[in-house]
Amino acid sequence: MNRIIEILGKIGLTLQIAKTAFAAALSWLVASSMLHSEYPYFAAVAAIITVQVTVADSVDKATQRIIGIIGGVLVSMLLGHWFEVGAVSIFLIILIGMSIAKAFRMNPQIISQVAISSLLVLAFGQAREGYAYERIIETVLGSAIAVLINALIVPQNAVPAVERSILAYSNLAAITLTNLAVLLDDLGPGRKTGRTEVDALIKQSEECQKALSLAEQSLKYNPLLTHKRIRLSQLSESINQLESITIQIRGIRRSLADITLNQAIEPEQAYVRQLKLAMQATAHCISAYGFSSVKTTAGSLQKLQEAVQQAQAEQARCLESLREINALATLRDFGSILTDLGRIVSETQLQNTAQAETKAVALPS
C-alpha cells in the first residue's frame, strides 16, 4: 500500500489530494441528499479547507470554519434586513463583522471567514428563506466528513520521520565529536575551534524537535494510531538524551577553544593521543546509541553496551594519564573535556537501561 502511495505521489496524486477530493464529493452528496439543496457548495468548500496534513490540523480548521460562518451568518441576519445588496451594504457588513471578530481576539482565519460568510448570506440569503441556517448545517456537515476521512483513511503516521531524524541527529553528533578530536592534532592560536560543526549540530537538533512536534500532532485525535503514542514517548526521551549530549559536545568545543587561545599550554603528546582515542570511542558510543534507539533489538543493545564499555576504558586510561600533567591550566582544560566525555557516556547508559526495561522480552538480532 505504501509503495503504491509513493508511486502515485511522484506523479502529483498525493494521498492528501485524493482524500480532499473524496471528502468534497462525499460532502456534496450527503448535503444534497439531506438538505435537498441544489448547490450545497458550502459543504464541499468546508471539506476542502478542513482536510489537512494531520487530524489535529483538520479539527483546528473545522473549528475555525464553523465559528467563522456562524459569526458571518449572525452579522448578516442582524444587519442584512436593513440593507439592499450593493457596494455600501457590502462595505458595512464586512466592516462590522470583521471588527466584531477582531474585538473578540479571534484567529485571523476566523475573521476572514466571518467576512466571506457575511457577504454570501447577504447576497443570497434574502432570496431564499432558511438559506443562512442551511449554510451553517452544510459547513458543519462538510467539516465533520473531512475530519472523519482524514482520521480513518490511511492516517498520517509521522513516527518514522522522527526515527530518521534521530538517526541523522545521532550520526551528526558522532561525526561532530570525531571532528573535534581531530583538532587535538593541531592545537594553537589561530586554529579551528569547531564552531561551524557545532552550529550544524544545533540546527539538526532543531530539525529533530520539529519532526517530533509534527508526529505529536499527527497522533492527536487519531484513534487508529493510539498505539503509536508509547513509541513516540520513547523517541521523545531519546531526543532529550541527544540534546543533553549536544550540550556536552558544546562544552568540549569551548574547552578546545580555551586550549587554542592559551599559548602557554603544551600538553604531552602521549596524553593528547589518548584523549583523542577516548573522544573517538565516545563518538562511536553516540552513533550506536542513536541506532539502538530506533532499532531496539538484542543485537543493537549489545553493540551499544560494547561501545559504552570501550569508551569507559579509553576514558579511564585518560584519567590515569592526568596524574602526569603538572601544569594547572592544562589539567583544568583537559580534565573538563574528560568530564564532558564521561557525561556523554552516562547519557547513553541511561537510554540503554530504559530500552532494556521496555524490551524485556528477547528480540531477534
Secondary-structure map:
Layout: H1 2-10, H2 15-35, H3 41-50, H4 55-79, H5 87-103, H6 108-124, H7 131-152, H8 159-182, H9 195-219, H10 228-261, H11 269-294, H12 298-321, H13 328-358
Helix pairs in contact: 2-3, 2-7, 3-4, 3-7, 4-5, 4-6, 4-7, 5-6, 8-9, 8-10, 8-11, 9-10, 10-11, 10-13, 11-12, 11-13, 12-13
What can you tell me about this protein's structure?
The model is unreliable at 359-365 (pLDDT under 50). The protein folds into 2 domains: 2-152, no CATH class; 159-358, Methane Monooxygenase Hydroxylase, Chain G, domain 1, CATH 1.20.58. Helix 2 runs antiparallel to helix 3, helix 3 (41-50) packs antiparallel against helix 4 and helix 11 (269-294) packs parallel to helix 13. It is elongated. The chain has helices at residues 2-10, 15-35, 41-50, 55-79, 87-103, 108-124, 131-152, 159-182, 195-219, 228-261, 269-294, 298-321, 328-358. With 365 residues, it is an all-alpha fold.
Q: What is the CATH first-level class name of the largest domain? A: Mainly Alpha
* Number of helices, counting only DSSP H or I runs of 4 residues or more: 13
Order of helices and strands: HHHHHHHHHHHHH
- Oligomeric organization of the protein chains: single chain
Which word captures the global form? elongated
